């Protein structure tokens, strides 16, 4: 039997690698470590990479093990899921991993300008009904600009045709520089895609077994230039998440 939510939350209160600041706690409270993650937590001057919507933290931990010279922070509001990655990182003594439990809408309250070099968006909810909630929307990109270095890198890895299509339109419409792009990551022979293909989460393997292609996009986010939403209709996915079909009768959305 899996450990209960209350027990997991109790565990994480004792974890040195977990920082819990949901919106209700930090609405008017400054985060003291903002701008000081390297010296106060990681104790080094290595680059910082975020995974936004990290879930169980499989990807955050996997990246940290693969790149010990880089600092990784997994961000999510679901603490019971985050417990898995935080526990693994603690048990394995990974010093280049941290987890931040908060709402991604206020992510810029936790990092100072130029403090972060890269962002991973791994299997984010496509939010087909609400563009403002998509983690690759201009609404969120404007927030990322507040702490991401100029021309910092954003990785999108998704099983969702809708989210991949939307993000590609958004990137192209705003003329954001693209390094890599594919609709089928695991059929790529180019070694440039090896980093994105090197870690496979549990649900990712389930989606692959179901016959879903994994899409991947690596692009840069300059500080300069206004960002606009693409005005296009995009075909909706047939499903909302693993084992669940979409509820809406609509066929497309912006």
From TrEMBL:
It holds the Pfam family Methyltransf_4. It catalyses: guanosine(46) in tRNA + S-adenosyl-L-methionine = N(7)-methylguanosine(46) in tRNA + S-adenosyl-L-homocysteine. Keywords: Methyltransferase, S-adenosyl-L-methionine, Transferase, tRNA processing. Substrate binds at residues 159, 201-204. It is an enzyme of class 2 (transferase). CDD domains: AdoMet_MTases. Its EC number is 2.1.1.33. S-adenosyl-L-methionine binds at residues 51, 76, 103, 125. GO terms for molecular function: tRNA (guanine(46)-N7)-methyltransferase activity. Pathway: tRNA modification; N(7)-methylguanine-tRNA biosynthesis. GO terms for cellular component: tRNA methyltransferase complex. Belongs to the class I-like SAM-binding methyltransferase superfamily. TrmB family. Catalyzes the formation of N(7)-methylguanine at position 46 (m7G46) in tRNA. NCBIfam families: PRK00121.2-2 (NF001080). This is tRNA (guanine-N(7)-)-methyltransferase. It comes from Prevotella communis. The gene is trmB.
């Amino acid at each position: 039997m899996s450990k209960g939510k209350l027990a997991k939350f109790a565990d994480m209160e004792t974890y040195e690698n977990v920082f819990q600041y949901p919106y209700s706690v930090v609405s008017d409270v400054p985060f003291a470590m903002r701008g000081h993650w390297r010296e106060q937590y990681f104790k080094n001057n290595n680059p910082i990479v975020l995974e936004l919507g990290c879930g169980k933290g499989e990807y955050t931990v996997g990246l940290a093990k693969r790149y010990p010279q880089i600092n990784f922070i997994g961000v999510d509001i679901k603490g019971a899921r985050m417990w898995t990655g935080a526990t693994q990182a603690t048990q394995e003594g990974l010093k280049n991993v941290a987890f931040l439990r908060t709402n991604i809408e206020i992510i810029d309250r936790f990092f100072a300008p130029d403090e972060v070099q890269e962002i991973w968006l791994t299997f984010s909810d496509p939010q087909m009904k609400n563009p403002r909630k998509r983690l690759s929307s201009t609404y969120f990109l404007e927030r990322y600009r507040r702490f991401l270095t100029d021309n910092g890198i954003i990785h999108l890895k998704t099983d969702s045709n809708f989210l991949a299509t939307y993000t590609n339109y958004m990137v192209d419409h705003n003329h954001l520089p693209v390094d890599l792009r594919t609709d089928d990551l695991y059929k790529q022979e180019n070694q440039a895609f090896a980093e994105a293909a090197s870690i496979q989460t549990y649900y990712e393997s389930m989606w692959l077994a179901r016959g879903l292609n994994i899409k991947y996009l690596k692009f840069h986010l300059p500080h300069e230039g206004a960002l606009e939403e693409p005005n296009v209709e995009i075909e909706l996915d047939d499903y909302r998440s693993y084992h669940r079909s979409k509820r809406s009768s609509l066929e497309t959305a912006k």
